[in-house]
Design brief:
CATH superfamily of the largest domain: NAD(P)-binding Rossmann-like Domain
Bound molecules: guanine
Shape: globular
Strand order of the largest sheet: 1-11-8-7-5-6
Largest sheet: 6 strands, parallel
Structural class: alpha/beta
CATH architecture of the largest domain: 3-Layer(aba) Sandwich
Number of domains: 2
Number of strands: 11
Radius of gyration: 19 Å
CATH topology of the largest domain: Rossmann fold
CATH class of the largest domain: Alpha Beta
Order of helices and strands: EHEHEHEHHHEHEHEEEEHEH
Length: 295
Amino acid sequence: MTAQVIDGKAIAATMRAELKAEVETLKDRGIVPGLGLILVGDDAASQSYVRAKERACEEAGIYSDDNRLAADTSQDELMGLVERMNGDPKIHGILVQLPLPKQINEAEVLLAIDPAKDVDGFHPVSVGRMVLGQAGFLPCTPHGVVQLLLRSGVTIEGAHVVIVGRSNIVGKPLANMLIQKKEGANATVTVCHTRTKDLARHTRQADIVIAAAGRPNTVTADMIKDGAVVIDVGVNRVEDATKKKGYRLAGDVDFEAVREKASLITPVPGGVGPMTITMLLYNTVESAKMAAGML
Ligand code: GUN
C-alpha cells in the first residue's frame, strides 16, 4: 500500500480562510482580535517561528503586539510585560515563545499569564480543564493534530492510538485530548517514551501512530501495521551540505519507507507544522469572542 499524503498546508489554508472571514465579521461589530507575542533572546528557530506567527496574524486580520527582548532580560522585566498584557483590553491572547533563557523561571512566567488569555494552553488552569474535559484553550500542536485527523476523514473513535513521546507540549496533552469521552475523541491511547521496552511491539498494534519524539528515524517501516495512519510531529534540523542553509528539516518518521505501508501519512515540512499556528489564530479569535461575551 502507498499512503495518501495529508496536505497540512492545504487544510491549514482552509481553516485560516474560515478564520479570516470570522475576523472580518467580528471587526464589523467593533471587535479586533489581538495577540501579544513575546520572544526573549536570539535563538534562530524561535525567531523564525515568531516571524511566522506575526505574518499569520497579519494575513488573518488579527492585531499583533510584537515584543523582542534581549537574551539577558530579567525575570522581573518579563513578568512586568506579561502583567501589562494581562491588563491590556486590545490583547486577547499572550504567547511567550519557548524555550526561555536559563535565568528565567519558565513555570513562573506561564503561571503569570491570565488563563483567559492563555492561547498556548500551557497554564496549569488550562491543562487542568483539558484533563477534566472542560471548555478551555487547547495547546496548539496537539489540537492541530486532532484537526488534521478529523479533516482527513480518520475515525478516532475506538481507534488504538500510539503516541511516541511524552512532552508537556505534545505527547501528554494529545493523550488527554484523545481519551476524552466526546465526539472526535474516544480513542484507546498508549503513550511510549524513551524508557519504553520494545517500542515496535507497541507501534505495530496501532491504528494511528503519532511520532513526537524529537529524533529523526524514530519510526521506521517495520514498526507500522499495514494501512495505519502515521502523523509526524517531529521538526528536526538535519545537516545537509547540498542545502543553502546547511540543513534540511526532517520529521521523526522514515517518510519514504513508511509511506509504502501506511494508508495516510503527514510530510515534514507541510504536515502538522502549518496547523500549529492555525490553532493559535483559532484560540485568539475564540478568546476575543469570549471577552466580548459572545461565547
Ligand atoms: N516552542 C515550541 N513550540 C511552542 C509553542 O507551541 N508555543 C510556544 N510558546 N513556544 C513554543
